Records
---
Amino acid sequence: MMLLPWMIKRLLLAKKFLPSIITGIFLAWLLLSLREPTQDFGFDSIAFGKLPVLANGRLKPLDTVARTALLMIHGKMAISDTEGHAMTPAEWVMDVLMRPSTADTFKVFVIIHPDVLDLFHKDIAQGKYYSFSDLKPFLDEVDRQSKLSEDVPSGSRNIFQREILKLRDRILLYNQLKSSLHSDESVDFTDEIATFRKALDNGLKAFRERSEGKNFSKDDLSVLGEFFNRYQLFARLASIRPVPRGDAQEWKTVGDSLLETIQTGRIDRAIDAYATMTTAYRSKNVDVFNQAVADYRGYIGESFAAVVKKTDYEFLFNRFEPFYKCMILYVCVFLLALISWLVWPEELGKSAFWLLMLTFVVHTAGLLARMWLQGRPPVTNLYSSAIFVGWGACGLCIILEKIHRNGIGSLTAAAMGFITLLIAHHLSFEGDTMEMLRAVLDTNFWLATHVVAVTLGYASTFLAGFLAILYVVRGFFTTSLDKATAKSLNNMVYGIVCFATLFSFVGTILGGIWADQSWGRFWGFDPKENGALLIVIWNAIILHARWGGFIRERGLMNMAMFGNIVTSFSWFGVNMLGAGLHSYGFMDRAYLWLVTFDLLQLILISVGLFPLKYWWSFMSPDEKAASTKN
């Protein structure tokens, strides 16, 4: 009997420290994730993954190249070899670059559409994942169907035509990647470089003798010409540039560097290093491979210290995956905030808020890291805009929660943070999320301020809409919407709409100033410009309707939910029109999700229009009893 009071006392004490305990556990998890990874045995894929290359216009580690390619080809970064052993992206790219015959057997290509599968032999048309070796006998048919599909205007293509073009692009990306260090004809890369060095010396000697009118060896000149033609084709196929130069944009492909050698007479040290790595990897000589990687990293570190510092940081960024961890944290915040409405409201509510603050710090750190790596403002494409919208909404919700302390801010921040990061995750399938900006988006002061302001307008308008959804869901489906909570939500939505109106208006004006400097006109009724103006107008209509007494509490909520439709169209919908100067970042598969989201908003608005007597929170006890019986 004496044990029970002791247990209750301990439980109450533990409850008091619950926010500190929960936050401490997640903080420890995050700090442990920041540890520098090590590899004590086998091929050093970690050091290899850190090697810098130029790809798609920017310097990045090979680890990023691998992750991007896997997302585009495979749809995820988790991959297994033929024996079912899990591989990291860096281990996969090592096989693709240096042992392509092995990489060809990995089932990385995703094919789901039945009409596309009908192009292949029935023996391989099993499941959804296929290797390059599976597809190789049918590449001519894929190419033929792709050419036929290309002849159809993009807006008129059916699902099969779009899917066959996607498959063609994935196969092309894979072929470009595996042709980046050596050609398919190369058996021993080190031996090939030695042969080329000898042919270079003899060929250049023959060329000089011919120029001086002396007798020369036609065979030596012919051998050098064969190498020249081979490396010229090889240079066109490669997708990465691993050979460093002083200017970041002048890094060379292996083929271009070898062609340059014909003029300079000197083979770049990077070529010798990659040749040694490739030969050692193919012969499974771990010690030679690891030493070659270490020596080359030492050389790069001395000659290109700034580049190595940045690519090493990006490698750590990739391993830490801040936004994926934020998604996990947002889910935990959501659950804590939800449970706090049922039990231990003070302790669990505080736990949710403290964990939300920690998540916001990680989210902010991820944003700042991307800005430093890119050297750009926080918003440069649709992916980064999704990241920034979630961040802005989370920051606003922290302010709301600090003022009202009712768990609504924490719950809404978690929901919006998770949804926007989920959107960003799916946008990452389209390629490098830190791609170089298009010329039309080349940054200046007005662009930087415009995108930040207008994206904060997106975030706050969405936040007002999500708070309105919470109002309707709690009021119509539960009994938890009391007068105090309803008033609190009303004040939140009104305040956020005011904030949204200001930032969407300022962002639109700043966009006009930027357009005037970049394109010579302030306004051109471009679809994206019209979308931004629609957000401003809709938010202004909400405020005027409220000030004029045309709407009250429920009317404000319904109009705020319709703001979600306006903003989603302006954010994504205008990109699907395929017209205008802002038609970039198009995703045809986002169309279904956009329509589904908008239909859901219309359903919720319809629910919000129901008379209060049908709302569960506003029913009298007799009405609730009658409703339950029915």
---
Amino acid sequence: MGSLSTSSDTIYSRQVRVLLPLPLAGAYDYLADPAQNLEPGDLVRVPLGPRTLTGAVWDPEPGPGSGKIGAARLKPVGERLDVPPLPGNLRRLIDWVAAYTVAPPGAVLRMAMSTPEAFAPAKPVTVFGPGGAPPARLTAARRRVLAAAAQGGPRSARDLAAAAGVSPGVVAGLAKTGALRSHVVARDPGFARPDPETPRPPLSPEQQTAADGLAGKVAAQEFSANLLEGVAGAGKTEVYFEAIAEALRLGRDSLVLVPEIALTAQWLDRFEARFGVAPAEWHSDLTRRERRRVWRAVAEGRAPVVVGARSALFLPFANLGLIAVDEEHDASFKQEDGVHYNARDMAVVRAREAAVPIVLVSATPSLETVVNVRDGRFDHYRLRERHGSAELPATHVLDMRADALPADRWVSPVLAAALRETVAAGEQALLFLNRRGYAPLTLCRACGHRLECPNCQAWLVEHRHTGRLQCHHCGHAQICPPDCPSCGEADRFAACGPGVERIAEEAAAIVPEARLAIMASDTLSGPRAAADFVRRVVAHEVDVLIGTQILAKGHHFPLLTLVGVVDADLGLGGGDLRAAERTFQLLTQVAGRAGREERPGRVYLQTYMPEHAVMRALASGDAERFIASEADARKEFGLPPFGRLAALIVSGENERSVRATAQALGRATPRGSGIEALGPAPAPLALLRGRHRQRLLLKTPRSVNVQSVVREWIAQVSVPSGVRLQIDIDPYSFL
């Protein structure tokens, strides 16, 4: 990068605003040389105090320093970076997200500039493609490399090796023989363009109608919000693939957001089968080099389709044609750290700013989306039947109060018998429990002492496979002490309650001949491990799966015919206003894994509350009635989506300072028609990662501008150093 030093005869006669990726109030004013031809979105290097930072030239509105600092005192812009400018639709999104979430614009910009490696000039890269005749000694690994090299264009040794599942040394060896030809390129290779005309299986009439409607929205090249709703196994993915195909025909880019990148293994296989090549991926498991490649390719228009986690929303697409949000109801789209935002909702905003259609996809749409459809803001496409000959599974509710199981057993006799039948028939079963580890609590049988995390107000979870107790909030881990730290008794600790490891132990006793495997977020090391797990299940190398919510959605296992939910009531407590809705969505999704092809499926829900509305709805299949009753209850109490909520979370290492700040906020709570303020009160997790926490909650009618109310509220209170105040508009978590 060039120096910020300037010659004495340079004339800085133009004033520009530069937004920096810092939690500052807004853009700052700088002087620019007219010869730089700076435009909004350009990335530049500027001084800020003793530092030199990279920022973005922002749209020409008065900055916080305008009118206060004379032009003679403004500092000059340094160099303009050789990077495509941040597009206007992304800049408008950043401003909108900042205003909506009551966050500093620079903190939002930081999410769009999260890959500083992409701002530096590209280093030359050696890429490999098909060469001469294959060598005489052709191993299986070499065959895979040559097959991979024949598809998708030239790639680096690392990328080609990863595609073939070999080491880079195999690629280098083939290059020496001449079977691969290498050449140096000046920039990172882009991504091969998917072919929208690749032959595909025929769609059902229901699918074709929805696909034609969505493709027509893409062809119109204007904003529209659309819900694609369909039962599990209805072929929703294949439908919105046709919208992507239309965007490709128009030369436009597509962004697909997914809640968990570990869910994409089969999605990627389907995409490649439909379009001939893989899309670009964006998620936290990418290396810095991979992130640089994707970011630059998006900015330069060389990544036609990107699939990614919520942060992909802030990639610099300049030629968007479509946004799709798969599993739009999933709570993983809500970011709970830093800037609190819901990627689903902000994706709708970006689609509007880019004037392109957005497709929200779900078998169990969120109540917010259902209300938007009902009120005419979203268009609705619906798939009511499973694709092909598959039928929805039969659902049975098991009243666990009647079974009186022993204290160390959690699988009912009915579910155990179904498990034996399924394995004996050569089919696969899934036992679902949304709780990682072996046991959620370890206590002393002598005095009742519970082993807790020293950094969080949370119990330590036993993970027997690793021989450690772990906190699932901060990551603290330790071995179980031999003596109780409270009473000193030795060998008196007992594991209480089940996690997936304990259910696997019980399943092994029920079907000792079965091949078992656990799938949870802490048993998989990343997307590749998830893909390998899925491959093993599809190849029938596993008879019984035991898993958490990571197995609940997105997977298609042809031989899986039995789903048993060990604790269907698990998500119904805790005072969360969305508890019933979330539980209904999760259990519907996991039930949808059963019977997705010719063999019929069965679902067993073990519950101590069979009379609960969620269990009745799942047993009857009457989702519409459940959603209607949930909407009526929320509307009666003015809760989202019929009212507004905003949470204030006060945290710090000094408990007294945190309490004093929260009390000051409590004394300054807003007043007005329909406005209610609750708190301050200790958060349910009053200690988290070593920080004490207090919460306040604001409830208003939808007609109230809750952001303005929050801004006026916090402006009345001085927050001391060492205390953090976080604002969460539309909170999803109440911990």
---
Amino acid sequence: MTYNQALRFEKYFKNKEYDTRIKNRTKPAKKYDFNGKSLGVFNPDDIVRILPSEERYRNRIKVIHENEIVYVNPYYVHGTGKAFGASEELYIRVPDLVRGGETETIKFRNLEASYSVFRSKGQLIDSIIAGLTINPRIHPEILKGFHALISNPDKNYVWSADVEQKHINEVGRKLSELLTGVAAFDGLLEGFKKPKKFCVPLQENTPLIDALIDGKGISSKYGSGAASSFLSNVFEPMRATPKPKCALRDLEDHYLSHQKHMVYNYGLKRLLGLNHDPGFIYDCALKGIVSPLLDETVAKIREVCPDNDILDNLPATITSFFCRAIAQSINNCEVSKQLIMTYFQKNPIYQVNLDDLAWSNGIIKMRVNPLNNLRFYLRRGKFHLTSTRGERGILTYELHRIP
């Protein structure tokens, strides 16, 4: 076990007990019995319960999966607080809600994935209800409310006092993409005819889209929604596209496969004129390693950065400084923004927002925004200013409606 593996075990798994998920890695996570015998594999996003233990067994941790005690390499397991998000308590997974569809492999934007396909409103609703029913954390009043809302979407339904507001919001966030399908089958989705097929990816966090309506990509948001990863959803897929000289190509010129190292590579060379190893400087900032090269990096930032909130907290704010600079560069480059919007529009894609205030008041109200009516905006991720890792994504983007 390496030093970093030991630290991770101490921080997230030693003598801990909580629910979490299996990560989506290139290879599936294997599960074992106590003697090391293979019992098969987990599916990505399977829910497991970490069981308290003083040490690892054969470099594995003990978990409960589907009422069975098994062992898994912690490399495949989300640490506490990361699997569901800070506000999630109901553990609703969209793949559990779409098991009633037919499985098809569909290609969208050169990415093949497995989808659950629905051909009628009834088939979709039955699948959602079945998935909610088997979830022991779903209060009966939530099911009652869902039935009432889909039966009379324009009529105010008063949520039971037994359902907390945070759970109403959580259900809305998780069901928003599926309610898009319900509205489409009802003919209530602006700009769409009643579809022949409504398709939902079986793997959560599929880049850019949450669903397909007759081949048109749908990105669903509850309210204004969370910002999306720029590097994974936009930058990486666009790298193969030839570009004129612009801020986006400038970032590509500093490409490294490790996203944070790439941000540091750009920051060190492009912003500070230093040729230091980006991985080394990142590790120094992350682990508090004393180094003359880190000191030189901090000194250079002090020469060019006007923000006191960055300067007062160096070197912990190096990641924030580099990310702010990249976001500002691309936001100020019309060529880059046009290239990004052109990329979005290669295949039909729509952003659909479920009105969170209306949902809280017992009404299903959805707004459709074609991408040609939206403006791209890049920002530093919503991680803490002094976070070197950038836990919530280091660069995120939003699509704002043009007034």
---
Amino acid sequence: MSIDSRMSPTTRWAVSIGGGTNQLPMIAAAKRLGYSVLVIGQENASASADLHFAISTFDTTHVCDEILSSPLRDQIGVVLTRSSGPALLTGSELARRLGLRGHAPELAAASVDKAQLARLCREWNIRTPRSWTPAALTYRTRGGELVVKPNQPTVGKVGVRRVSNLHELDLAISEAGRRSLDGAAVIQESVPGLDITSLLLVNEGDVVWQHHFEERVVQLADGTFSTGGHSELGEGLELADTDFFTRIGGCVREFRHTGFLLLSYRSNAEGSFLYEINTGLAGDGLAERFSGARTGLDLFKAEIKMLTLQSPETINFPPSHHRLVPEVP
């Protein structure tokens, strides 16, 4: 992990938390913007990365200690995290300790842990499917269908199952626990409705751009789920529940989040129910499919520019059909 003494002291560095295939588009965007890139992680799939520290992205303390003691510390201008797991916590904490703009720690924690998301929703009165831990649920008194998920998932939709009886519930809890980083499962009520994904770009808590998609979620015969992809969402449909978005706007503003934020929620006649958030450009391929012509925006460059104090006007936003989050009175 030695640093080449021939490297210029004026070089601008970007730190990529992770060096797998999901991080490649972000690394490439940083290189196009003139950064040298230091990859943190056990793997390094990028031939263009300039340095590689083989440290687990889950080990926040080790990563921060290594970077803060590095001669490159004062040359680091941005921390980039494209993940849906504990690497989000590492990226958020490293940016904070370096004094850089970054993803809000509170929102990163809710991205990683379903129990943290439920707690966040309670604190901000944001609708979310009711949830229980296995120990707190008496299924025989509940009736109806339930959805069982890993509490700390590693891959979206994996280990998620809808159940309708006690036998299915026990099996689903066991499977979800095996798929969770902390070995825990969370049980949620099954909420019908339209699945919507909203991608927000945020500047210190202020939403400056948004794009919305319908996510086609497919339930398989065994009760598990897969994604059928995303399509454009009709204009105005996502604003039907203004109270939902007002509360989310207040939460994002309070935590002064900067960068992208992905929301996944289900909407029906009762309102909208948040079931997932993800700080940054989640690694599920959504950003690759919609960066460029389909949104009018290079999503990867936009994330870097927003995180490096560049004016939103430099991002070359396309015309926006409306503002997603109303102003909080």
